[in-house]
Write a structure and sequence with these properties.
The chain has 12 helices and 12 strands. By secondary structure, it is of the alpha/beta class. Helix 5 links the parallel strand 6 and strand 7. The longest helix has 17 residues. The termini are far apart.
């Protein structure tokens, strides 16, 4: 399928930052420029330690709770969204909130509210300790049950009445579909969202791996260990018999992983910066993998607008510069 030298890299596209991550990082950067530090951020703005460390060096202060934010200060919600209780706590502390929740996560929250208002029990498919799932559960905690595996779907007990399901946006497509299939078999009347919840970027990065797996001997996914979508990409490769590894940066590459490989596929999770990918390619080049072939599986061109308060701040900054 590909013309290559003895040792080559298949550089998958799309990879790296999705529109929601770009928007979230831009929000923190613009807030720092417009208002000056400190800008407080609840949880990690995105799940990548390099991004968080860089923003922290410029004056972003990452906190676990709104209780850690001084009254009246500016607070950014992470891309993963928050529960209504967090919003109430922030309002009580008179915090000036800038919401960086990914619009696709907001969509799931709105679906949870809609299903809850129609008195349905919500089965939320996802990883119960993930920030996104915690925030979504908070929309209807008394009506939501989290299911993480097909085995859990086989045994989950649901109260009598109407049922609906939603999914975390960063799941493996195959993983989500297998759980949904069990739920539909057990609860034939279960209702799902009008459109699937798994985000376009998660889907596209998994598609690229599926298409490339037959051509590669190993897969390296750049992303932090707590990045759900990055971990799912590794799982997708492994499920297709491809030795697959999640790496923070080039220093994590173990030579033994690729010593017998002639072709290594490289991708990056939706919160991993391209600068880390370049460092991985440089390391691979030093190990003999100098032929880099970019393989585009899906064209990606999605952009999300900034929140109104930052659009106004951005306009004022442009006026002052002019």
């Amino acid at each position: 399928m590909f013309t290559r030298l003895d040792k080559s890299v298949l550089l998958l596209k799309p990879r790296g930052f999705c529109a929601g991550v770009v928007r979230a990082i831009d929000i923190v950067e613009l807030a720092l420029q417009a208002y000056g530090p400190p800008i407080y951020v609840r949880k990690e703005i995105v799940h990548n330690r390099f991004v968080v460390s860089d923003l922290a060096s410029r004056g972003a202060v990452f906190v676990d709770s709104v209780d850690d934010v001084p009254a009246g200060a500016r607070l950014v919600y992470s891309a993963h969204g928050v529960a209504p209780s967090v919003r109430r706590d922030a309002e009580e502390r008179n915090l000036r909130v800038i919401d960086a929740t990914c619009p696709l996560v907001t969509k799931v929250h709105l679906e949870a509210v809609r299903f809850a208002k129609s008195h349905r029990t919500i089965v939320l498919i996802g990883h119960r300790d993930h920030d996104e799932v915690i925030g979504t559960v908070g929309e209807a905690p008394d009506q939501t049950i989290v299911v993480s595996t097909p085995d859990e779907a086989e045994t989950v007990q649901v109260p009598d009445g109407d049922i609906a399901y939603l999914t975390q946006t960063t799941l493996s497509l195959d993983e989500a579909q297998s759980i949904i299939a069990v739920l539909k078999r057990r609860f034939p009347q279960i209702k799902g969202p009008p459109a699937k919840d798994i985000c376009y970027a998660t889907e596209n990065r998994q598609i690229a791996i599926k298409q490339t797996a037959p051509e590669a001997d190993a897969l390296l996914v750049v992303g932090s260990q707590n990045s759900s979508n990055s971990a799912r990409m590794v799982e997708v490769g492994a499920q297709r018999g491809l030795p697959s590894y999640l790496i923070d940066d080039e220093k994590d590459i173990e030579p033994a992983w690729i010593e017998t490989a002639s072709t290594v596929a490289v991708s990056a999770g939706a919160s991993a910066p391209e600068s880390l990918v370049k460092r991985v390619l440089e390391r691979l080049g030093g190990m003999g993998f100098r032929d880099v072939i970019e393989v585009e599986a899906v064209e990606e061109d999605v952009h999300f607008p900034l929140p109104p308060e930052l659009k106004q701040a951005q306009s004022l900054m442009q006026v002052s510069i002019e």
